[in-house]
Amino acid sequence: MSDTAVKASADVVDDAHDSHAHPTETQYWLVFLILAVITAFEVLWSYLGLSGPLLVVPLLAMMVVKFVIVAGVFMHLWFDMKMLNGKLFTLAFASGIVIALSVYTVVVATYEFNV
Amino acid sequence: MTTATAGVSVADSHDGNEAHRTSLNLSNMKVAMWLFLASECLLFGALISTYLLSKARFLTELLAGNPIVEASIDNPGLVREMQETGSVEPLFDIPFTSFSSFVLLMSSLAMVLAHKAVSEADYKNTRIWLATTALLGSIFIAGQIYEFTAFKEEGLSFTGSLLGSAFYTLTGFHGVHVSIGILMLLTLLVLSFKGKLNQDRAETVELVGLYWHFVDIVWVLIFTIVYLIP
Question: What is the ipTM of this complex?
């Protein structure tokens, strides 16, 4: 292996290590506080006596925010995505979610229309 | 590809634990864990969908006054409340479940701090945070056992109704996952006390962390979909 190739490969690994820099302890605590506050808002919202979309849509939105924060920060997905130039995981997860939602919609539709 | 292959060689020279890095710059173990978690998404996706569909069918029959469905809950007072509200809301104790959710969120924080500590060779804090995560997980499981006992006493049995079967299967599967996570954490704790969990093995803690956070994420979904949207 030539010296140039070794240097280039070392740069790749170093870049990967650099982009793998994770949040500080204080930032983790801050993220936890945000999650706790969202959870408190969820519970509060469920006690407001609302129904239909007014109840469900904000609750689902808060759920998605919590999901993204835990997956992105605690599971380091945002940082690992940078390691892969943000392509592979994005593609894999986006296609997975589209397929899952499509299947779910079809299944629910079969019940709704008594197929 | 030559560069990627050379990258593996350089990674090899860093430490033994990096020996199996892929051309994605992620270790095989981490890719394998993500694939496993993807399969778990399918499992819980199916269980959550089953619960939603079963609950809808149960409520439709209950509100229509189907005597078989009414008899499937061994508590006439609870059945009447469900019929009046048109939901399964009277069954749940939201403040208690909110506390359980908070406990599981805290355990995720403890887990990520354990991984950070072992990455920085801070082994004392690694043990403290691993033990804290396992303890919080155990509190969650204790809460779930209490909740199941309370539901049983209220008349919701596993085999008695469609709602009960779907509910206990979904939350029970989640509880089993938390229990397996606690065993993993205790194993890491023992390894740490034996001096076998050092900075080079930080990825092992990260992998267990991925599993633990996934279990937390599933509860985020269950808490909203099952408990808060009645």
Answer: 0.84
